[in-house]
Specification:
Layout (H helix, E strand, L loop, with lengths): L4 H32 L17 H31 L4 E2 L7 H25 L3 H12 L14 H8 L2 H7 L2 E2 H18 L22 H10 L10 H6 L6 H7 L1 H6 L9
Parallel strand pairs: 1-2
Helix pairs in contact: 1-2, 2-5
């Protein structure tokens, strides 16, 4: 079916609104931390050497626009599933109940992170890495603009975790917006290039399992290990957490200045 002019207009408006809102948020964070705060936050830098330049930023912006564009069909599919009654989505919270909504919310966070971990690890297979994931790893000194700088196929795969869930699990629709917001915030934090979380985080039983900017930054500098994006437990359980993570988190950039390049990292 050929889309009519109103559908195309809605498509364009949605894409422009999403792209503008994303780049305004990411741009302001970049200006605040990487420009205004470059000297003020020097002690929070994860990497000792700054390598970000205009060429990298332009590359990341281009890929982000492609990823945002490639993600729009997923929104249309979910909307169609909801309109056709195939999706277990609802705007009526009472039909599910708040205890179930909260439990589902936690379950979806864990499922999303598992989806990311296993796909991310698979994308590090040499063939897939060369064809797809290498686009993201061109950003070694990550910054906020690196957050959505993927190959379009990777962007679609990582975002598709929601499809089986809307078909199988009763979901309160506003919760999807909250999950998206959390995912975006976590993604930007992971690619911030600066570590602002307190060192005492590692002494708090539950919070120590959170991902940090250092955790994902080490993945970019080594191109191995630390595959999860929200929590540490998948990497710890499956033996893929980089051994120098906690030391680097505590020492910030100092560990990366002195760490030998031949350190054995998990596969």
């Amino acid at each position: 079916m050929i889309p009519d002019s109103s559908s195309l207009l809605t498509f364009v408006q949605g894409f422009v609104a999403q792209a503008l809102s994303y780049f305004v948020v990411v741009g302001l964070i970049y200006l605040a931390i990487w420009k205004w705060g470059e000297q003020r936050f020097r002690g929070a830098r994860v990497q000792a050497k700054r390598r970000v330049d205009g060429k990298q930023i332009r590359f990341e912006v281009k890929n982000t626009l492609i990823v945002l564009l490639a993600g729009i069909p997923l929104t249309f599919v979910i909307s169609w599933l909801y309109a056709s009654g195939a999706a277990k989505l609802t705007l009526d919270a009472s039909s599910i109940g708040w205890p179930t909504i909260v439990a589902t919310f936690v379950g979806l966070l864990i499922f999303n992170d598992a989806w990311f971990y296993f796909w991310h690890r698979l994308l590090h297979h040499p063939k897939l890495f060369r064809l797809v994931h290498s686009v993201h790893h061109k950003s070694v000194d990550v910054n906020p603009f690196s957050s959505y700088s993927f190959h379009w196929f990777e962007g679609m795969i990582l975002g598709a975790w929601v499809l089986p869930m809307v078909l199988l699990v009763p979901i309160y629709i506003p919760m999807l917006g909250v999950l998206h917001g959390i995912g975006l915030a976590n993604n930007v934090m992971s690619h911030l290039g600066y570590e602002f979380l307190p060192k005492g985080l590692l002494r708090v039983p539950l919070l120590r399992w959170m991902n940090t900017s250092t955790f994902h930054n080490l993945h970019h500098t080594s191109s191995r290990g630390n595959y999860a994006l929200m929590f540490r437990f998948w990497d710890r359980l499956l033996g893929t957490e980089l051994p120098n993570y906690e030391a680097t988190f505590l020492e910030r950039g100092a560990a990366l200045q002195t760490a030998p390049q031949t350190d054995k990292a998990p596969t």
